[in-house]
């Protein structure tokens, strides 16, 4: 977790103190279950809850001796308890606590990310509606293609975020599981009813079948969805970076008062946030392979996944949360230059209307092949000589003024845009 990019409340969620508090939640939920099923004496849960002691420095000090973080936690957590301590970690193994607590953390982190994604989705939809009727040049292969609606850019991003919200909600439901089934997952020293009841107190469900750990494909799926969200954000960032180029300048990311773009060149306004989001997306995607490799553990479990997850879970969630928050600001305060957007449609001197000319000639009786050859011939001539395609079409083909006007009207390309937008009502 990089401090520079760690925002609250995600930052605190992954602190050592929060980790130990989650471990305690799990331990106490088991004691509560023991008590409710009359295995532990009445009042055991309340006593354990009252007397549990969490002190990060002391736990770390004990860990230096025992070289085992969960054992160190148990020793300190129970150090001020009486008889109730006998039911603390009773019948459990370390992974019961760590895996279940990690599920709690991932569910809580994912909920926060989903909440912010929903805000981003609304911001994108608002922008889409605001610029629905603004013609812009569509680009394929980075080359001018045909006019389209500037609002459709935002609507496309909105639709992708909506899909990813649904995916995250599904993945969060799948990760909402715990495991309290002992050293190899067969309930040798704890009853499945204890697990079921204890996990219900944490709003989790039992893993249907576990080894010493929760199967890691569950985590891998969530992380794959995180990567999809990051890639969706990067798609926005890359488009904005392209549109902010000096020779294009259709948009510009927010540039606050006092901000400086370059240590050497005072005139610079660089798309630094978009570039940062692009880099962060690479980081998040890089964890997908690690998550997939974590699925394959030896027998009932080895520990090769553990160190990976100590990096992965905090890094992924804090980074993605940061990305979503910053993208909200990016889109909401994005500077848009409608005059440049309209001006750029005409950079090719009308060549972007070539298909309209082609189709009009087909309507008038030419075959598609004949029409294509004729239009391409004058289009290439106009491109090479930087002359008006519209004027060339007037001279070459027998078209009326009304037909010419209709062909070279960019708003024609927006005639069905409302139908697309209605899909989101």
TrEMBL record:
Family annotation (SMART domains): ADSL_C
Keyword Lyase: yes
PROSITE patterns for this protein: FUMARATE_LYASES
Domain Adenylosuccinate lyase C-terminal span(s) in chain numbering: 349-425
Keywords, alphabetical: Lyase, Purine biosynthesis
One Pfam family linked to the record: Lyase_1
Catalytic activity of the protein: N(6)-(1,2-dicarboxyethyl)-AMP = fumarate + AMP; (2S)-2-[5-amino-1-(5-phospho-beta-D-ribosyl)imidazole-4-carboxamido]succinate = 5-amino-1-(5-phospho-beta-D-ribosyl)imidazole-4-carboxamide + fumarate
Pathway: Purine metabolism; AMP biosynthesis via de novo pathway; AMP from IMP: step 2/2; Purine metabolism; IMP biosynthesis via de novo pathway; 5-amino-1-(5-phospho-D-ribosyl)imidazole-4-carboxamide from 5-amino-1-(5-phospho-D-ribosyl)imidazole-4-carboxylate: step 2/2
GO MF term (any one): lyase activity
Entry-linked NCBIfam families: purB
Similarity comment text for this entry: Belongs to the lyase 1 family. Adenylosuccinate lyase subfamily.
Name assigned to this protein: Adenylosuccinate lyase
The organism's taxonomic lineage, starting at the top: Bacteria, Thermotogati, Thermotogota, Thermotogae, Thermotogales
